[in-house]
């Protein structure tokens, strides 16, 4: 394919950038081209430690990286509060944009980022990696099959992990000036994404946060829950927390079938992942067991999900570069809907658990 | 053990009584002694079809069965609205009482039943079978272990099944004059029990039903959800429905560990059942997989859970009969707490999803 490999610049040396750097190396259509940090030494060490080629550019500022005309695309793992500044600037400099989640502090900010991307004709994608695992496509087939899943009724998602004392004190995700959305923006993002994905991104009409969220002293959410309501009666619940042991569940239930998995964000293993389905479940005659029992589906992958993400992003960028294709709009649409619902949960918390209408 | 086998009378020929009749046969301390129905023919057929010995008594009324002085204990699978009449009469006739769930239409009615049991010194137990599976005891050990589970944070339970059109038209569980609590009293009972069980039966301080319950034309709940709140910050969610495919999950999360199972009410298989735990879960260095991964625990059982229930009930009755022991109070306490929370969910629905205090 012409226009590839896509030359990536990494904006900042966050931990997660190590994983994505490896993914850029693994992906067939992309190459590690540059890294920028506020310190050139840090950038240099990062490049050395993460398999950058000797020819890679090392910049001591984000601006310098964005000024490099050979950078095709940037991966931006900066704190959420910095997204609007750097994502907009990257788009203005015609860099295609792979942006960490949450994509912004709120949808108003995100719309500014999207406008910049549209003006420049660059591809936008958020870095929700599990969307790109081949397992996700297999699960989509199940949910879309009226014979197996039937009419959608409800979906329930939980994502929690126990943050250690250092995280709770120092991580950007508990700092009101960096990632003000806290656990809701981090683990909560994934539960909202899973819910929206499961209903094919139909927005709920309203959202109610559940009472009892936990905040840190600075007012950042460490744990919360919410329920979501659709016009046709579909319902969803989510629970997200930095304060309880790792749990990563999605349960989607239709009139005919159920889908369940316990590792939706990070599969237990890199090379293969599974999910469980049951279809028209019933019991044995005396209700002493299930008939039929649920089925386990194993999906193997030649590339880890983050490399699948980079591959798809690079493919889209390659089409734009080589053939003048338009950016794929579904990815920014998914991001925006996720942010919209996230905003509604936050608003409901702020308003004492009132029902908040979701208006696109 | 003296005083056994316990002679059981079955009050009514509900479908579920077939399963419990088999359990009485399987259990070492009990025997099928009598069955009573509103029609002697129906009772007779039931006895013939369900392995009753030739000597078994067949009665054409519930009264007649209760008047038989040789009946030690009764199993009562009658519609919930009839519990107060027949459970009280059974207790007054000194019959030990194994009562189907929900135990009553509300806790006020249930207290009348309990008073009758206490006056007569008979054992009360509700027929929540999974409580007696050896898996349940193994899961209890995990939840009680501060090294593995830590401090309790949240629990989430779902129990749904798709009722067929005949059920939705004719089953007692959708009839306001028979089982007015509908899906909440049936599948919802189990989710509430699982939540209370998981927190060692500490009552929540408040309950909020989630908006969007579905009712049938007669006003009986076919689907609903709720959230529960404890003084120390623990939270729980439940979802129960007659309108979506069978799903039977419990996820309990502590600061150190998580517990998960997908068949908590009826294990997939009769002879063995499993659950999954994870302890101090983390990721591989690059967050490409879990380390450690969750563990699967398989628990085999020589007797199905319903026979374990009959065995434990009969053991307690045997102790009362042979040694003048006092009835075991934990079982009616578990029932009462479950009913209390169920009542609070119902009240919250009736009051437009207000927060309802749970007062014991």
TrEMBL record, chains A, B:
Residue span, GFO/IDH/MocA-like oxidoreductase domain: 146-259
InterPro entries in the cross-refs: Gfo/Idh/MocA-like_OxRdtase_N (IPR000683), GFO_IDH_MocA-like_dom (IPR055170), NAD(P)-bd_dom_sf (IPR036291)
SUPFAM superfamilies named in the record: Glyceraldehyde-3-phosphate dehydrogenase-like, C-terminal domain, NAD(P)-binding Rossmann-fold domains
UniProt family annotation: Belongs to the Gfo/Idh/MocA family.
Name of the protein described by the UniProt record: Uncharacterized oxidoreductase At4g09670-like
Domain of life: Eukaryota
Pfam families linked: GFO_IDH_MocA, GFO_IDH_MocA_C3
Ranges of residues in domain Gfo/Idh/MocA-like oxidoreductase N-terminal: 6-125
GO molecular function: nucleotide binding
């Amino acid at each position: 394919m012409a226009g590839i490999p896509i030359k990536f610049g990494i904006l900042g040396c966050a931990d997660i950038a190590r994983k994505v750097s490896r993914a850029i190396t693994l992906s067939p259509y992309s190459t590690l081209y540059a890294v920028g940090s506020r310190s050139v030494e840090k950038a240099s060490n990062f490049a050395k430690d993460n398999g950058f080629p000797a020819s890679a550019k090392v910049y001591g500022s984000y601006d310098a990286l964005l000024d490099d005309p050979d950078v095709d695309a940037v991966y931006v793992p900066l704190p959420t509060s910095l997204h609007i500044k750097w994502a907009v600037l990257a788009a203005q400099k015609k860099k295609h944009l792979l942006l960490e989640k949450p994509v912004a502090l709120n949808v108003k900010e995100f719309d500014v980022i999207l406008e910049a991307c549209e003006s420049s004709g660059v591809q936008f994608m958020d870095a929700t990696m599990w969307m790109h695992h081949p397992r996700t496509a297999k699960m989509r087939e199940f949910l879309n099959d009226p014979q197996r899943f039937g009419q959608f009724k409800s979906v329930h998602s939980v994502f929690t992990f126990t943050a250690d004392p250092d995280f709770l004190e120092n991580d950007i995700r508990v700092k009101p000036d960096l990632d003000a959305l806290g656990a809701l923006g981090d683990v909560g993002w994934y539960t909202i994404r899973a819910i929206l994905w499961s209903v094919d991104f139909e927005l709920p009409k309203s959202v109610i946060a559940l009472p009892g969220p936990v905040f840190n002293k600075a007012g950042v959410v460490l744990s919360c829950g919410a329920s979501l309501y659709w016009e046709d009666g579909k319902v969803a619940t989510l629970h997200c927390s930095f304060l309880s042991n790792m749990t990563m569940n999605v349960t989607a239930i239709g009139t005919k079938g159920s889908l369940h998995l316990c590792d939706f964000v990070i599969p237990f293993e890199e090379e293969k992942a599974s999910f469980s389905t049951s279809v028209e479940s019933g019991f044995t005659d005396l209700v002493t067991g299930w008939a039929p029992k649920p089925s386990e589906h194993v999906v193997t992958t030649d590339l880890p999900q983050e490399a699948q993400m980079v591959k798809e992003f690079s493919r889209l960028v390659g089409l734009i570069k080589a053939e003048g294709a338009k950016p794929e709009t579904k990815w920014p649409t998914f991001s925006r809907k996720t942010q919209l619902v996230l905003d509604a949960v936050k608003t409901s918390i702020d308003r004492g658990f009132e029902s908040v209408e979701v208006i696109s």
